[in-house]
Amino acid sequence: xxxxxxxxxxxxxxxxxxxxxxxxxxxxxxxxxxxxxxxxxxxxxxxxxxxxxxxxxxxxxxxxxxxxxxxxxxxxxxxxxxxxxxxxxxxxxxxxxxxxxxxxxxxxxxxxxxxxxxxxxxxxxxxxxxxxxxxxxxxxxxxxxxxxxxxxxxxxxxxxxxxxxxxxxxxxxxxxxxxxxxxxxxxxxxxxxxxxxxxxxxxxxxxxxxxxxxxxxxxxxxxxxxxxxxxxxxxxxxxxxxxxxxxxxxxxxxxxxxxxxxxx
Length: 264
Ligand code: PEP
What we know:
44% of the residues lie in helices and 14% in strands. It contains 12 helices and 8 strands. The protein has helices spanning 21-29, 49-59, 85-91, 101-106, 111-123, 136-140, 144-155, 161-166, 185-203, 205-210, 224-228, 245-260, and strands at 10-14, 42-46, 65-68, 95-98, 127-132, 168-171, 212-216, 235-238. The structure holds phosphoenolpyruvate.
């Protein structure tokens, strides 16, 4: 049976700490203004903070959305070096990546702090792209579900079902990020279906059916369609392969094809 996808998939580019302003300008100049004419897929670009303003201007008048890669959970104040949700709204962001594994593992971010960030993002009308995922060691020990469940529930503590419906969650196994070794579509689908069940238990079926859950980890033009053909996978968070406009565009096109193949 072929079933129409009722959630709008999101393909998001995470540029991480890459691209000077001029490189960001060149990327956008070489990228189609209308990469998804049917509007069946949401396209998001998350540049580093220093390029947000420039990319915001370049994307004006297009349907491509702007995202940031982090925020500090206060509107303003004495927080030297930090960027607030108010500032991200001001520059034109719609999305913000939170709880990325590089921030969890390199900067030691914990679920309680990520939870404050999720709440702050929602309070300022920013859509969090909340990342969860297990390390290779945790996977080998059979802890994938336990770890992802704990990160998910810890990061979403105190949210109601209406808030949960607005989120994008990215299941990103740490061992697949930037390694060239992606999870199989079947493994990603199983873990994402599990996360949807956790959401259903805690916030109800409606929230679980509405929340968008992406896969992230070595997504490329060659493998995106397989992920998108899975019933529970609503797009991808893309690091390395989003740095070149051609490959990011090919991923969007592959996502369209995969989405059309989506069967249950
Ligand atoms: C990421 O940065 O979230 C990511 C998934 O990176 P990559 O696509 O390079 O694995």
